[in-house]
Amino acid sequence: FKMATKAKKDMPSIILEDVYNIYTNEKQGLIKLAAELGMELLPPRRKITVLLIGNHSAGKSSFINWYTEEHVQRAGVAMETSGFTFITSGKRRETLTGEATIELLPHMKGLRDCAGVADCIRTEITTSKQKNFPMVTFVDTPGLIDGDKKYPYDIDKALVWLGRMADLVLVFFDPIGQALRKHTLDVVEALCSDEQSDYRKMHFYLSKADTAGSDRDRQKVITQMSKDLYGDPINRPGMNKVGTHAEIPTIYIPKDDDQDQVSKLCPNDIFEVCNLIDSTIAITVQNTLNTLGRDSGNISKLIDQRLAEDDVASIHNMEARYKGVMYSAFGIIFEVVFCLLIIINVADREHLEEVIPKDTVTALVKIGNGATWVMGLIPEEWHFRIYLFLFMIGISMVLYSRFVWRIAKRLSSKERKDLLWTKQYLEEDVKRKKESLYKKYLTSAVGEDHRL
User: Cα dist. 209→51, 112, 155, 176 in Å?
Assistant: First the structure.
């Protein structure tokens, strides 16, 4: 039973790892195939990102330490010395600086656009395997305080950007610092107003609830928090969305002392937060598999487009060659006939019959006589202009043939063969792999008979 439970727990990690390999394979990975077609893809994340926001001493670091069951983060660090910290699971305990963090987490490279942030981020790698931590990357943010305190970067802009990238946003409110949460509410409103983010992934908690006093005192704090979140639609219009789903459960770090009466009387939903993280992992697995299908489909569409463009280029080149040959041939023939007529008019017939068959000379003479008769109808001072004009017509046809003979660049036979192979690989192998991974996921979640 324990082995089955462990396999069920590891299944999301196995699936996300397999999908990651489909994208990053050096020979036929989707990223490589897409790049060859001018399309940029990022590798899917193998872990979910959980962003923690709150005022100073709201319990964010304490929650991370409890979840990982390791002392990873120092609790109560002064705002002046704290920055953004990514906490993730790895093979050994390690600390990474800003650039190394971005190399480890390429989807976070957008932080470089927030001036000053890249110098204030680090990653703490720990070997913890507790709960579902191997599937999670926590982002511990600076404690937010009210007032005119200046940060070395635009912290609101950075938090909004991180909110877009996060799969889950946990907002902690400290019951003791009720008067110091204006900045936290400003950030929440900015996240709600951000059109590129989904406000529904934000969840609000009264942290350190065991320090809020009696049950009555705790309820007063929750009531005040509820008013702050969605009770002021005029001054905080961006918070209207929150009011449709906001709940404020109470959480605190469980005490080892079972005799703690306050802990027994105070509801603690901290394990519900764990369940929320687990459900987010499950949703991420489904979204990743769906994204795999969409990306492979988009690459197939690009291949179809490239092949269709090549077919159009083939037809265009055929027409261009036909027109080029026709104009070139007509121009050359026109010039030859024009020159022969001039030669016939100025040369002796007997000399012509020595180099040209007699019948041909006779036909040319008749044509020449006709042309001479036509020219006789035209004033003599126009003859040179007409000859020049006719000569230029032939030259123009030859030159124009070079213009219409322009051909479009086409795929080589090898390139076309490779595209067809890639399309077959996407529509057969990748599709089959995706269906297999979906079946594994559903089997681990529901059972062998997953088609209800």
Answer: 20, 37, 27, 9
Question: Tokens 């963090």 map to which residue?
Answer: 101
pTM of structure = 0.74
Asked if residue 43 lies in contact with residue 24, where contact means CB atoms within 8 angstroms, the answer is: yes
285-331 per-position pLDDT tens digit: 999 999 999 999 999 999 999 999 999 988 888 888 888 888 788 87
End-to-end distance of the chain based on CA atoms, in angstroms? 24
59 touches 175 (CB < 8 A): no
| Strand arrangement of the beta sheet that strand 94-96 belongs to | 94-96, 121-126, 84-89, 136-140, 48-54, 168-173, 202-206
Using DSSP, state whether 431 is helix, strand or coil. Answer: helix
What are φ and ψ of residue 71, in 5° steps?
A: -85, 80
Backbone angles phi, psi at 203, to 5 degrees: -135, 140
Which residue, 88, 169, 178, is CA-closest to 133?
88
Backbone angles phi, psi at 381, to 5 degrees: -70, -15
pLDDT at 259: 45
Angle formed at CA 307 by CA 301 and CA 312, multiple of 5 degrees: 125
With cut-offs at 50, 70 and 90, classify the pLDDT of residue 6.
very low
Residue pair 419/411 in contact by the 8 Å Cβ criterion = yes
CB atoms within 10 A of CB 432: 10
**Closest among 230, 223, 153, 148 to 188, alpha carbons compared:** 230
- Across 166-325, where does the E strand assignment appear? 168-173, 202-206
Q: How many CB atoms lie within 10 A of CB 241?
A: 18
